[in-house]
Amino acid sequence: MNYFQREMECASRETMRDLQSARLAETVRHVYDNVAYYRRLMDERGVTPADIRSVDDLPKLPLLTKDDLRDAYPYGLLAVPLEETVRIQSTSGTTGRRVVAFYTQPDIDIWDECCARAIVAAGGTRADVVHVCYGYGLFTGGPGLNGGSHKVGALTLPMSSGNTERQIQFMVDLGATILCCTPSYAAFLAETIIEKGLRDKIKLKAGIFGAEAWSEEMRRDIEQKLGLKAYDIYGLTEISGPGVSFECAEQTGMHVNEDHFLVECIDPDTGEPLPEGEKGEAVFTSISKKAFPLLRYRTRDICVLSRRPCSCGRTLIKMSKPMGRTDDMLIIRGVNVFPSQIEAVLLNCGFPPNYQIIIDRVNYTDNFEVQVEMTPEMFSDTVKDIAAKEDELLGSLKSMLGISPKVTLTAPRSITRSEGKAVRIIDKRKI
Amino acid sequence: MAIEQISVFVENRPGALAEVTALLGGAGIDLRALSIADTENFGILRLIVSEPRRALEVLRAADYVGSATPVLAVSLADAPGSLAGVLRVLADAEINLEYLYAFITRQAGHAYVVLRVTDNDRAEAVFAEKGVEIADHGEIFA
């Protein structure tokens, strides 16, 4: 069995708890001293850094939400002087929802090491050729796996997303052995590789697929089509990016890198911690990062935690695949989409806020359609005028969301309303 | 003189057109000519009707989106080359044509072409100059 950092990944519960407690206490002191926002939240709750001595004290700390991060944008939660920071990453959201996370060089090293653990757990070694086609840039997917692959010492192909022809050509020509991308793109690549008759030319043995929900059925299908073993990976920009947790060969949940990120499962309604094994909202606390450490950050992802011993030998706590969300956020083709963003674009382009979002999954790819009602103001007797407005709307949606929906104009009052309230989202995906 | 055409937004689905026409029929509105511009998702139904204003009211009351547009109904001899002659007049004057559709009435030897141009006033002026006849609402519904 291979590990990237065996002493952490297989630490005894006592060793891990002691380390976590020390790091938590240090982090709480660090943010209390350096971030006015945290100081105010803790003062309001009557908690001081001296009250946080072990992981058992975690529930004394206030919970943090995406709204807190938005309030603090851009520098409000930065916990180190600017000269110590070297990088930002950002969520795909709108101006209103955008979150910018900061990293010092050691923070990036931690993140890269977490991704390296995921790659090694998927069987990666320095002899591998790691093909990364997550997007590079503000999105954490590409930079995270890229950094992890470097830490492993593997040859890294920084492909980024798009240009499927070139992806496949490099994969074949360079003999890529580990593929990192979203599961939907992996499925698309698989279809294309088979269509081109190149199935025998690829050497993939493992895939690390994350950033969106996918089913066991989809996993088996990708595994069979590409002849590899598919591993899930989880993360969020706010906490660092991919590698917050990762799957091992057992494929029964993702090990949380809990020497860096404490995980709790809370009742989303009351905020109270739930016992192990109960379904609730995942909450993370980063305990080793310096630039942007978050205390008790609510992910809105619903999952289950388990400390059941794992056949891989890792003692790191496992979380299930996220089973849903506590808010209305949709993850479409790996991108976070809030209905409120779509509403803002519609209003901005002169359309009424009478819309419906329809999502379906066909051949493992998300079909994303926005239906919007026609209005007298938008109507014209010529197709070209209406098409111009449709194009403008499509362009604005694309620049806001980062992905293109299909836009369908519908008759006034045609969008289903139930009890006077419009049904905004029809998610037909069966994941 | 321009006549009023009404345009209606119709979804591209079975029965959509039947519903609009039934609504107008039920209100006693006479249709003289129509054309439809279709796209993947929707169509624009354009109509020359006996009472355009009332037709729009009826449609709007039933939650349809529609508008009235002034268009020119050119009266033509039902003979080879007559439409080409009219279009040449527009082309020479560099007046852009958005769309057109033709219809005939019971008047023998006569056809009408509804023209939607970018500049009705200028089109009317060049038609007058070149002797192209324009029909008014009364003539069409005579």
Description:
Chain A has 431 residues and is α/β, with parallel strands linked by helices. Chain A has 2 domains: 6-327, ANL, N-terminal domain (Rossmann fold); 335-427, ANL, C-terminal domain (GMP Synthetase, Chain A, domain 3). In chain A, 31% of the residues lie in helices and 25% in strands. Chain A contains 11 helices and 23 strands. Chain A has helices at residues 6-9, 13-34, 36-45, 66-71, 105-121, 141-152, 164-173, 183-195, 216-226, 339-348, 383-401; strands at residues 85-90, 100-104, 129-132, 155-158, 178-181, 206-210, 229-236, 241-247, 254-256, 261-266, 280-286, 297-303, 305-306, 318-319, 324-325, 330-332, 335-337, 355-362, 365-373, 406-410, 417-418, 421-422, 425-427. In chain A, the strands form 6 sheets. A 9-stranded mixed sheet of chain A has the order 4-3-5-6-7-8-9-14-13. A 4-stranded antiparallel sheet of chain A has the order 10-11-12-15. In chain A, strands 20-19-18-23 form a 4-stranded mixed sheet. The mean pLDDT of chain A is 91. Chain B has helices at residues 16-26, 52-61, 82-92, 120-130, 137-140, and strands spanning 3-11, 31-38, 42-49, 66-77, 97-104, 110-117, 133-135. In chain B, strands 1, 2, 3, 4, 5, 6 and 7 form a 7-stranded antiparallel sheet that branches. Classes of the chains: A alpha/beta (431), B alpha+beta (142). Chain A binds chain B through residues 374-376, 379-384, 386-387, 408-414, and chain B through 5, 7, 9-11, 16, 37, 39, 41-42, 44, 46, 63-67, 69, 98-99, 116.
